[in-house]
Design brief:
Cytochrome Bc1 Complex, Chain D, domain 2
Protein backbone atom coordinates (compact mmCIF):
# COMPACT_ATOMS: atom_id res chain seq x y z
CA UNK A 1 0.00 0.00 0.00
CA UNK A 2 2.88 2.40 0.72
CA UNK A 3 4.20 1.84 -2.79
CA UNK A 4 0.79 2.66 -4.26
CA UNK A 5 0.56 5.87 -2.20
CA UNK A 6 4.06 6.89 -3.25
CA UNK A 7 3.16 6.40 -6.90
CA UNK A 8 -0.06 8.37 -6.56
CA UNK A 9 1.82 11.16 -4.77
CA UNK A 10 4.40 11.23 -7.55
CA UNK A 11 1.72 11.41 -10.21
CA UNK A 12 -0.24 14.15 -8.48
CA UNK A 13 2.92 16.22 -8.17
CA UNK A 14 3.84 15.79 -11.83
CA UNK A 15 3.39 18.45 -14.48
CA UNK A 16 -0.16 19.57 -15.21
CA UNK A 17 -1.86 20.31 -18.51
CA UNK A 18 -3.84 23.52 -18.69
CA UNK A 19 -7.46 23.11 -17.62
CA UNK A 20 -8.75 24.53 -20.90
CA UNK A 21 -8.21 21.09 -22.49
CA UNK A 22 -11.56 20.07 -21.00
CA UNK A 23 -13.46 23.28 -21.76
CA UNK A 24 -15.99 23.39 -24.59
CA UNK A 25 -15.94 19.63 -25.16
CA UNK A 26 -18.78 17.54 -26.57
CA UNK A 27 -20.13 16.01 -23.36
CA UNK A 28 -22.82 13.98 -25.16
CA UNK A 29 -20.19 12.38 -27.37
CA UNK A 30 -17.96 11.87 -24.33
CA UNK A 31 -20.78 10.11 -22.50
CA UNK A 32 -21.53 7.86 -25.48
CA UNK A 33 -17.85 7.00 -25.92
CA UNK A 34 -17.51 6.34 -22.21
CA UNK A 35 -20.38 3.87 -22.52
CA UNK A 36 -18.72 2.17 -25.49
CA UNK A 37 -15.11 2.07 -24.25
CA UNK A 38 -14.97 2.57 -20.49
CA UNK A 39 -18.15 1.40 -18.78
CA UNK A 40 -17.36 -2.32 -19.09
CA UNK A 41 -14.53 -1.88 -16.59
CA UNK A 42 -15.25 1.42 -14.82
CA UNK A 43 -19.02 0.97 -14.54
CA UNK A 44 -21.98 2.47 -16.37
CA UNK A 45 -22.37 4.94 -13.50
CA UNK A 46 -18.63 5.55 -13.11
CA UNK A 47 -18.69 3.38 -9.96
CA UNK A 48 -15.63 1.24 -10.72
CA UNK A 49 -15.14 -2.41 -9.88
CA UNK A 50 -15.76 -3.86 -6.41
CA UNK A 51 -12.80 -3.70 -4.03
CA UNK A 52 -10.97 -1.43 -6.45
CA UNK A 53 -8.32 -0.56 -3.84
CA UNK A 54 -7.36 -4.20 -3.28
CA UNK A 55 -4.99 -5.79 -5.82
CA UNK A 56 -5.99 -9.10 -7.35
CA UNK A 57 -3.82 -12.23 -7.19
CA UNK A 58 -1.83 -10.83 -10.14
CA UNK A 59 -1.07 -7.62 -8.22
CA UNK A 60 -3.24 -5.51 -10.52
CA UNK A 61 -5.78 -3.18 -8.96
CA UNK A 62 -9.35 -3.45 -10.28
CA UNK A 63 -10.67 -0.53 -12.34
CA UNK A 64 -11.27 2.46 -10.04
CA UNK A 65 -14.42 4.56 -10.01
CA UNK A 66 -14.40 7.76 -12.04
CA UNK A 67 -17.03 9.40 -9.86
CA UNK A 68 -16.07 11.62 -6.93
CA UNK A 69 -15.46 8.60 -4.68
CA UNK A 70 -12.44 7.54 -6.72
CA UNK A 71 -9.10 9.20 -7.31
CA UNK A 72 -9.44 10.27 -10.95
CA UNK A 73 -9.91 13.89 -9.92
CA UNK A 74 -6.64 13.77 -7.99
CA UNK A 75 -4.69 13.61 -11.26
CA UNK A 76 -3.93 16.31 -13.78
CA UNK A 77 -5.49 16.27 -17.24
CA UNK A 78 -2.31 15.28 -19.03
CA UNK A 79 -1.81 12.17 -16.92
CA UNK A 80 -5.44 11.14 -17.43
CA UNK A 81 -5.05 11.67 -21.18
CA UNK A 82 -1.75 9.75 -21.35
CA UNK A 83 -3.10 6.93 -19.19
CA UNK A 84 -6.04 6.53 -21.56
CA UNK A 85 -4.09 6.89 -24.79
CA UNK A 86 -0.91 4.96 -23.90
CA UNK A 87 -2.25 2.56 -21.30
CA UNK A 88 -1.35 2.58 -17.63
CA UNK A 89 2.05 0.90 -17.73
CA UNK A 90 3.40 3.02 -20.60
CA UNK A 91 2.01 6.28 -19.19
CA UNK A 92 3.60 5.57 -15.83
CA UNK A 93 6.89 4.49 -17.40
CA UNK A 94 7.00 7.79 -19.33
CA UNK A 95 6.85 9.55 -15.95
CA UNK A 96 9.62 7.43 -14.49
CA UNK A 97 7.41 4.97 -12.59
CA UNK A 98 8.19 1.35 -13.38
CA UNK A 99 7.00 -1.93 -11.97
CA UNK A 100 3.49 -0.73 -11.12
CA UNK A 101 1.07 -3.32 -12.54
CA UNK A 102 -1.72 -1.43 -14.28
CA UNK A 103 -4.62 -3.15 -15.97
CA UNK A 104 -5.48 -0.08 -18.04
CA UNK A 105 -5.13 -0.85 -21.75
CA UNK A 106 -4.05 1.68 -24.37
CA UNK A 107 -6.76 3.26 -26.52
CA UNK A 108 -4.49 5.01 -29.04
CA UNK A 109 -5.67 2.70 -31.82
CA UNK A 110 -9.36 2.97 -30.86
CA UNK A 111 -9.92 6.61 -29.91
CA UNK A 112 -8.71 9.90 -31.37
CA UNK A 113 -7.15 12.51 -29.11
CA UNK A 114 -10.34 14.59 -29.38
CA UNK A 115 -12.47 11.62 -28.36
CA UNK A 116 -10.28 10.99 -25.32
CA UNK A 117 -10.60 14.64 -24.26
CA UNK A 118 -14.40 14.42 -24.70
CA UNK A 119 -14.52 11.34 -22.45
CA UNK A 120 -12.40 13.05 -19.81
CA UNK A 121 -14.60 16.16 -19.97
CA UNK A 122 -17.72 14.01 -19.59
CA UNK A 123 -16.26 12.26 -16.55
CA UNK A 124 -15.37 15.58 -14.93
CA UNK A 125 -18.82 16.99 -15.70
CA UNK A 126 -20.36 14.37 -13.40
CA UNK A 127 -18.40 15.49 -10.33
CA UNK A 128 -19.81 17.95 -7.79
CA UNK A 129 -18.66 21.53 -8.34
CA UNK A 130 -16.37 21.37 -5.28
CA UNK A 131 -14.51 18.40 -6.79
CA UNK A 132 -14.41 20.03 -10.24
CA UNK A 133 -12.85 23.11 -8.65
CA UNK A 134 -10.21 21.03 -6.85
CA UNK A 135 -9.40 19.24 -10.10
CA UNK A 136 -9.19 22.54 -12.00
CA UNK A 137 -6.59 23.73 -9.47
CA UNK A 138 -4.40 20.78 -10.51
CA UNK A 139 -4.53 22.13 -14.07
CA UNK A 140 -3.44 25.77 -14.10
CA UNK A 141 -4.65 28.04 -16.86
CA UNK A 142 -2.08 29.23 -19.38
CA UNK A 143 -3.97 32.05 -21.06
Amino acid sequence: MRRFLAIVTCLVASGAMADHELEGRDLDRGQALYGDYCAACHGANLEGQPDWQTPGADGVLPAPPHDETGHTWHHDNQLLFDYTKQGGADALAARGVSGFPSGMPAFAESLSDEEIWDILAYIRSTWPKRVQDIHADRNPRHD
